[in-house]
Give the backbone structure.
Amino acid sequence: MLTSILALSILCLAIGCSGGQPAETPKVTFDQLFADPVRYNGKQVTVEGFYFHGFEVIVLCERLEYSGRAPGHLVPQGRMMWIEGGIPRDAFDQLYRQQMMGPTERYGKISITGKFQYGDKYGHVGAYQAQIVPSEMLLLPWSPPTQQ
């Protein structure tokens, strides 16, 4: 009997006492994430946004807008976080491209799961207060807005 209780206790610890189901990663919005970043600091989250990779910039942002500096040139806007390590090459190669202000920039809409970090300086020259270290990423259907 004691052996059975001990075995069940060890099994419960091994699977996290969750009935065998892994803990689900919460899907959060930019509003939720940045309204209470300390709550999510160091935790796995899933968030949708716009990936932008340009000169010294690899970010997930709320939206892309036209810069007005070159016809059709999109830039990241709104709240943003550094993406530590970037995204997988096969996904990167499927992104939209633009080369209007210098080196080729890549962009698209993605869903990203990873460890959210907040409260330090992240990215190029510590320009960002938050970052995500991706563990999963999914390209989402999206087309750039028409320029007005």
